[in-house]
Amino acid sequence: MVPGSWFLRVVASARPAVAGDASVCCGMLPTVESRCRSSRILLNPPADTRNGSHVLSISALQSVQTVISTPHGDALGTSFRWPGGQYCAIHTDRGILGCGLYDVAVGSEFGMAIAIARGTPEQPLVNPADLLTARVAEVSHPAAALGITVGMSGQEALTRLMATPE
Description:
The protein is 20% helix and 31% strand. By secondary structure, the chain is an alpha+beta fold. It has two domains: 7-49, no CATH class; 60-162, Hypothetical protein Ta1206 fold (2-Layer Sandwich), CATH 3.30.1980.10. The relative contact order is 0.13.
């Protein structure tokens, strides 16, 4: 490793990749990801910055995943928190209901339905359940094709993401 550089270490499972895996279709790490179904990417800072105040300890990070049951099936709710920030999302087979971290233009480019809700300082979006009562502020083209519109509740958007295509 070059002194002072960052390096990436991938810890991968032995399960083979299947068509449609997000890591494969997004083109990330094709030589490794094409051989495995799931992986964990670990970024290690250079040795000379490990004791600096700008390096975040993993003990300060929080990640929560929960299954959200709907009449149309289950979705995966996720939230990630760190000192000073957070984001959350609800993932479905057809797309994502998420906070403002996600980019609808990128979702449109990859054909993914993305509905964005935005929190406020008084009512931040911290947990996936917070997305259900929030209002949709932006949608990708594929989300619009599912009937998801700006102004509808997150619950309505999730219902459209989960409903069986006609």
